[in-house]
Amino acid sequence: MMKTPADQRTICCDSCSLPAVSLDPLSGAHFCASHFNARFEDAVARTITESRMILPGDRVAVALSGGKDSTVLAVLLAKLHPDLRDSGLVAITVDEGIAGYREETVGSACKLCERLGIGHLVVSFGDRFGATLDAMVRESPKRACTICGVLRRTLLQQAAAEWGATKVATGHCLDDESETALMNCLSGAAGRISHAESGPGAGVPRIKPLRAMSEKDITLYALLNDIPIPRAECPYARTSLRAEVRGMMGYLEYRYPGTAAKVVEGYSGIAESLRRHRTPLPARRCTLCGQPSSGEHCQCCTILRMVGQGPEPGAPTKRSGQV
Ligand code: SF4
Predict the structure, then answer these.
(1) Which H or E element spans position 159?
(2) How remote is the CA of residue 240 from the centroid of ligand 1, in Å?
(3) Is 28 left (phi over 0), alpha (psi -120 to 50) or beta?
(4) Which residue has the higher pLDDT, 172 or 228?
(5) Residue 28 C-alpha to ligand 1 middle, in angstroms?
(6) What is the CATH number that goes with domain 53-277?
(7) Ligand 1 centroid to 212 CA: how many Å?
(8) Using a 6 Å cutoff on CB, does residue 234 contact ligand 1?
(9) What's the mean pLDDT in 137-143?
(10) Pocket of ligand 1, candidates 180, 234, 307: which has the most ligand atoms within 8 Å of its Cβ, to mutate?
(11) Residues 38-58: what's their mean pLDDT?
(12) Counting CB atoms within 10 angstroms of each CB, which of 31, 77, 122, 167 has the fewest?
């Protein structure tokens, strides 16, 4: 049946009479732009405070890929923590060397840092590892994301340590966290479930201030606040297991709102319980680079050797901050 004009009335914010731009699927509450923004920023600030993510004296390196999530994170850290702006906040962009994709996002990251007035470091696979990701992928049967994930994490840690960061902030959101939880279960990676991301040997501690925010809300926040979002998508993204898990989680979240949050909550409980009962592994170092490692070779050196860029046994041991 055709809708009459009376049926098409504007839905208003539950907190004021302005038109709503957002619906919370769990509570059914509607929010206008201004109440949505306030609620979003409060939630991020609460995540940071409750988990003591940023403490006085911290120097925070934000991992800025130039994509939506990390861009919103950089904007929010500059806004919520103006005390960091002088010399306590820097953005680090890793240029993996992905033709037709990284150029746009690196450019977008540079412009954002200028606008925010914060320092910006760009580090590349080419400079640090001797080859771009595109070149490495041609040399290896491994999936691009497997190579990229390990090397990017290593490079980010090294750049952050060189700058003197006490925390590395990443833009992981609720969707990312639920996907990771499911991927670790699907791949039987029991060790990764209890893997602590802080503590001796883990490098500069990571914080995830957006971990409770959905990707949908992050996108809306960016749109409402004129935060530029590059359109480019990594050409390798569709080849990853994560892409398939994302599709599954998206469907479940649509059918049963709140699924992602429940997956993360359940997974965190299991991880915490496993951690409490875990026998600490003996402290070991990679025999190639000297960095902390659970095996003879760390993940980074293993990948680099696989793609023909790694040091050979007996090469001088490298220290933190070197590749
Ligand atoms: Fe790297 Fe994969 Fe992300 Fe592309 S989609 S940037 S290859 S992890």
Answers:
(1) helix 144-163
(2) 8
(3) left
(4) 172
(5) 35
(6) 3.40.50.620
(7) 22
(8) yes
(9) 86
(10) 234
(11) 96
(12) 122
